[in-house]
Amino acid sequence: MLHHLKHYLGYNEFRPGQQEVVEALLQGKDVLALLPTGMGKSLCYQLTGKMMQRTVLIISPLLSLMQDQVEQMKKMGIKRVIALNSFLTRMEKQQALQQLSQYEFIFTSPEMLQQGDVKERLTQLNIGLITIDEAHCISQWGYDFRPDYLRLGKWLKSQKNIPILALSATATYEVMDDIKKVLHMTSPFVYLHNMDRKELHFSRKWFNTTDEKVRWIKEHVMQTMGPGIIYTPSRRKTEEIARLLQDVHIQAAAYHAGLESHDRQLIQAQFIANELEWIVATSAFGMGVHKPNIRQVIHETMSPSLAHYMQEAGRAARDGQDAVATLLCAPGDDEIIRFLALDDLPTKNMVTDFYAGRQLELSETQLRVLTYWYSEWSYDEAIQKLKELITQKMTAIRATQDVLYTDECMRVLLMSHFGQSKQVEELCCSLCSDAVDNLIKVRKWMPLPQQMKLNWQERLDKLLN
Known about the structure:
By secondary structure, the chain is α/β, with parallel strands linked by helices. The chain is built from 18 helices and 13 strands. The protein has two domains: 2-192, P-loop containing nucleotide triphosphate hydrolases (Rossmann fold), CATH 3.40.50.300; 200-335 and 399-456, P-loop containing nucleotide triphosphate hydrolases (Rossmann fold), CATH 3.40.50. Helix 1 packs across helix 3 (41-52), helix 2 packs parallel to helix 3 (41-52) and helix 13 runs antiparallel to helix 16.
């Protein structure tokens, strides 16, 4: 195994879990693997594909993540890789489908996989492995409900004797059961890596008002070291905090889904290249961002679920060095969390009107969910499903409140939510040790390139001589 790892991918040793997953896949087993962010999940399907000498299909949730993974593989020397997604023009798509057998690794989205010509072409290939990335999206109880992921089950059922690899960083046992059921996994090998990372420390701070939180963020960022990410639920708040930091000469940018795609790509590239020290973002930022030296993740408001929170906090400390995830709290946060958790769910009236064919103003997620329900279930079944979803969301909200108000160890609570135990005894969280906040007190940031210190007019003058 080590010989093949070195030969095909250039690595000398496996990270925890990688070898076990690859060996199970080579034996033809279905595999469900929970590996923390930054633990090299992609190596599992890359090495398996190389050793099988057969095509690997990777179903990925985000176009930007898909493109990033393709670019990363090309940099590694894996050239026969393609992203089959909506970025392609009609002509490019047809050409790609005609040449699909030439590729070792094919990335696509669950939505693209529903298209007849794509499904037909894939059945003609010698596929040796089907990988479902970010597999928590499959779950009806998961925190990123995607109906087209649920439709995968029907297609996968027709793909006989092809092992399935489901990958995720965070999932509860309930979500894992849902993944196995929807994907029709047969006695899968399950690998659960311990989520407790000794280099990631947790801190919680209470304030009287949201304005106090923002003032604290400004002072804290001025005094401590980055790079870092500040998560906030509001697009308006991302812009506000980013401007505050820019006013005190911190290289920061706002990132949210309301920005144009090329703007988001530019901001992400600048952050990775150390041209930006801080990103102030909604939950739209982070998936697929390969930046190992993130020292801080600050949540201006708690995420709507602990799965969300751990996914975002886990983007720090991928280099194995100490980092701190800081949670800011204030009265009224409970209502914000409740709104975030339930906002995109359709209401009972929406379900009734949709099934009756009446015109409605719906969010993109509400429309996706209702369209799927209408295609699969009767009205009564949809109402029952809505009740179940609300119950699950409320359970997730109560779990976040436990972290907000606990007097016990944050790490113990977080790990127990995912059915795991605390491993680290020292500097686990600010509730157990005041020393956690001392880990990041000294501001150490490399000087930015000289051109980044100029304003846009000066930069243009310099470029145009």
